[in-house]
Design a protein that fits this description.
Elements lengths: L9 H18 L3 E2 L4 H10 L9 H4 L4 E5 L2 E5 L7 H4 L4 H9 L6
Parallel strand pairs: 1-3
Antiparallel strand pairs: 2-3
């Protein structure tokens, strides 16, 4: 049986956001790959990019430029890989999106 799919609660989002932000500040990545709509919304709003109100269905696999306190960062939103469990037809799309990350290796 597949695990139960659910959206995070607002309390969970508020609780974990500072931890995610702190990890980003410590690691200072050149590329951020938020997996899923909630992660994408948090990162795009955090860096106040023009795409911050976009939908994951529109922005997945796109390259978004952002500025951080430590310099430039690329944001590449992607669907969460668990999507392939719930929607097997999405596997090819997920593979294409993940293939785009090869440009950063």
């Amino acid at each position: 049986a597949l695990p139960i799919k659910r959206d995070p609660s607002s309390d969970e989002l508020k609780f974990y956001a500072p931890f995610v932000d702190r990890l980003i500040d410590i690691i200072q990545p050149a590329v951020l790959v938020p997996l899923g709509g909630y992660a994408m919304m948090h990162v795009l709003k955090k860096y106040d990019v023009p795409e911050k109100n976009g939908k994951i269905s529109q922005l997945h696999g796109t390259l978004i430029d952002a500025r951080t306190h430590y310099g430039a960062v690329y944001i590449v939103p992607m669907y969460h890989p668990a999507m392939a469990l719930y929607t097997p037809k999405s596997r090819d799309m997920l593979k294409k999106d993940f293939a785009k990350l090869r440009n950063f290796l």
